[in-house]
Amino acid sequence: DLQQSWSYKQAPAQSVGREEHHMKHTVVLVVACLLLSTAAFASGSMSAFFIPEIMRGNTVIGNPSQSIAWSGNPAALAGEKTDAVTDGPAMDNAASFATNLSGDDDVWALSYGGRSMVKGWGIGAGYVDSDYSEAYGIGFGMPLSGFEVGVNWRHTEMDSYYPPVDGAQSTSMDDSQDLFDLAGRKVWTYGADDTALKGLSKMAVGAVLRDVTDEIDSTLDLGVSLDFANGWTFNLDLLDFDTVNLGASTRIGSAKQWEVGAGLTDGDLTLGAIYDIAKDGEPTAWRVGIAWADYDWDDVIYGGVSYNWCPKSSDCGTPSTRTPYDN
Description:
Helices cover 15% and strands 48% of the residues. It is mainly β.
């Protein structure tokens, strides 16, 4: 403090002006990052750090990826019951890792989703760490009377330092919140001639009541997803009747080994591509991807990898035969 006071007294006025401007700019950036992190975690967008969700406009309500469902819509962790006989735990599992390759805020995230192939219930968990915040949580989903229902818990930690500006003292913020979401979903599957929309194979409608105890901001988020037999997927989310996210993806390549997508997150463009890793000409359960988002506050590039595994005697399918939401 004494050294800082001496520097201000000795420095020319122009230098002081530049220093104060720099500190004000720093405060603005820090506050912006905190607000964005808080809004993201409150809205369930821990999902929005992962490649499939980013490239489809951060749409997570109608049909999120299996490994991300616990946060986006925990009801989507549920699945159909089967009579599978296995020589191990009858779980269909998916895990994802993602990190930013550019942007002002360093972020990495890890997420898991598992579904019982016998009982139909599912569980998930994840962790996100950034410069100014971290969050982790768990989720559960199960089938109920033709619907899917779910619940999750998310813990968020915000930690930041505000440098002194205009004579004000420096301040710091260390805040934590425990958030709970309630979710529901209905899924319809169709044959080739069952609907007026040619080629429609699956439709999912979801709803998530975010932050039910209103620790940060309670919202009602709605979503619909259309999955077509030719590999196209279209998603639309309406967040708290205020913000619209939409996105689409499809598979390309001689073996449909590429999934490419584009979307709009509240009007901000997102793009991405995911590649199914092959070995000896055969697809594996590994996928790698990259996504770019042109957000108002920053252009961000994310990279990620995912892996699926199932009991040996059951067949989860290869990435190209599974729907986008299974990966």
